[in-house]
Sequence to fold (148 residues):
Amino acid sequence: MKVSDAILGTGAIVLGIATFLDTLGFPKMPGGAPGPALFPQILSVLLIGLGLVVVVQSLRPHTAENNHYEPVAILKAGAVLVFIAIYVAVVQRLGFLITATLIMLGMMLMLSVRLRVALPAALGIALFSMLLFERILRVPLPPGILGG
Fold:
């Protein structure tokens, strides 16, 4: 049994339940359309489910393993955090579409995806996300320099 994994999984479950309960007070949309609570509720359920998986796996007997991570892998994981910080810092000024496209493009290039694949994929995912949030979920995204 790995106690640290059991604690982490339990924490994820508690956080997921607390978040889900908090979303029950979010306003409802007229006509039964998905409201602002939908996305956080989906994430809460996923967090609870994944927390359960971690707890169950922590109960299994573990052998002593030498967990060794390559320095490049650690740097790439740190770069993801830097990309997230950059997104938060510039999204209001540049807007969602430009910022999300550049961030995803940067991450894909960091993972050695060819530019001719990474650029259309990053733009397509950003456009799909924008459509999903603004048109279907009715969550406004920052327009930035593109206006709106």
Observations:
- Residues 3-59 form one domain.
- The chain is about 70% helix and 0% strand.
- The first helix runs from residue 3 to 23.
